[in-house]
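Sample A.
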Amino acid sequence: MSEWLVLTLAMAAACGVVLAIVVINHRRIPEDDDPNETPDVIEYMTMMIGVIYAIVLGLAIAGVWEGRSAAQEVVRQEAQAMHEISERVEVYPAAVRTRIRADVDAYVSYVVNQEFDHMAEQGSTTEEGDALLGKVRRSVTDYEPANDFEGQAYQPLVDQVMVADDARGARGQSAGETMPGVVWFGLIIGALVSVGLIFTLQIRRTGRELLLAGLYSALIAFLLFLIWDFDAPFGRGLAATAAPFTDLFPQVTG
């Protein structure tokens, strides 16, 4: 069963139960009942809906911010791993060292200059980036150490390739949008309900009340925009950047 169908049925069932109870109770009210003696629940309901929606907004903002921070962290781990590979091959012969560093530089240059733009547009990494990282892996693993000193550096280099590969995979998984459609549905419907409840109160056309109503609506719109902007860690204004690569490889990235 589709999650949208389950959601629709659950919402319809909840509304139906509440409305049925209200109708049944209304029929049991005596004719001499004075409604002025019962408390008005409009303000209470408005306050509770506002509080609940504020909690949902806070959780959504925390979730997308955490996703963006995690995306930036995996970029740092990947850049650091490639930097370690480039530095630790110092113990290898000059020809091997030059070949490995050239492969690392080619991978870093491609990631910074092309792949980040592709991730922003398509929400995924590229096959060419995978091939360049595979070339770095082969350059590291295919070399047979000539002595114990080189042998001691071999396994740490292989481990750093694994770290870079794992970080690249995590970067690819973080490239797309992270908020499910059902969550956006709840956020938008909640915003409409929260703003719409303003009209259930006795709002007047005084400057102060109109200003507060406008600011309240603008605040909700800003928070929804913030969630949307953070939702794609590599694709929008406050996106994760390639700064770790440019900081560690200035000779490659310019």
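Sample B.
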Amino acid sequence: MAEKREYRMEELARLAGITVRTLRFYRERKLIPPPRREGRIAWYDDHHLARLRTITALLERGHTLSGIAELAEAFDNGRDVGDLLGVGGAPTEEEPVHLTPEELADHFAGETTPENLAAAMELGYLGTDGDEIVHISRRLLDVSSALVHEGIPLADVLDAAKQVRTHADALAELFTDLVLRHATPQDLPRLRPLARSVVEAELSLALDRRMRRP
């Protein structure tokens, strides 16, 4: 395991490409966590350096310091990746995505508010892994990002996702009960693609019916 590095304020500012005065300002605004203190000496680590580089990247993308502070607060209070994935481990078919805070902001330009982050974390979409954010599913990330870029507010997308989650849980329960009445739990993984195909086909037909309505 790599040895943890620590820096004094002047070295940290130099590595981050900012002035010591700016570093003090960020610390006063609570944009970075407090340093470790050893007597009168403040020690910073790679976590602080990553956060400072993130702040610089977000500022270059046009984000305000107030918005960055809100993002940092939500990020610091988020669940870690262990809570996100749960006891059962990673999803069996979905691909988790690791993102920096600025990459997440790029996916949802102007929509990464603390309220939206909290909603995404409550749904189990987002967790944290060190200085990175983890999204539970690349497909869900891509779809939600596409909807936002089509002009649909992220808050509405997340509200719809919460409703879809309720229906999806009910469908999963229905399929599981059906299989277990006639087969064993060991058969569930093998038959799982059939359940997905039924749901996809029925949703496609339902969309056809909905779009034909006046």
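B remarks: The first strand starts at residue 6 and ends at 7. The CA atoms of residues 132 and 189 lie 31 Å apart.
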